[in-house]
Design goal:
Blueprint (H helix, E strand, L loop, with lengths): L21 E10 L6 H7 L1 H9 L4 E9 L2 E9 L5 E5 L3 E9 L2
Length: 102
């Protein structure tokens, strides 16, 4: 691969639109900086959060086009909708994956 660049990056945790019942299956605890907003703390911990979520179903989606011997490919990192509990405490944030009860 000769040239590659990130053209768009978006990372956020969306609040649930409806209550979800379930049990916590695994958790990640991260130290936070109280001077920053909750959103900034989550963005600063993006790599740790993605590594934690990787264990629960992140997958890569790749598309390639070859026109006139020029290859263009797009790789997308997607996290399927995953119910989480995010708890902010004084110096930490705990992110837990929630197993839905059927």
């Amino acid at each position: 691969m000769k040239k590659s660049k990130i053209t768009h990056e978006h990372f956020h945790i969306t609040p649930s639109m409806t209550p979800i019942d379930g049990t916590k299956s695994s958790s990640l605890k991260i130290e936070i900086d109280n001077e920053l907003s909750n959103e900034e703390n989550l963005k600063n911990s993006k790599e740790k959060i993605l590594e934690f979520l990787f264990k629960s179903g992140i997958y890569l989606q790749s598309h390639s086009n070859n026109i006139n011997n020029m290859n263009k490919s797009i790789t997308t990192l997607k996290v399927p909708p995953t119910p989480l509990i995010v708890e902010f405490n004084s110096n930490t944030v705990t992110i837990s994956i929630l197993n839905k009860e059927e």
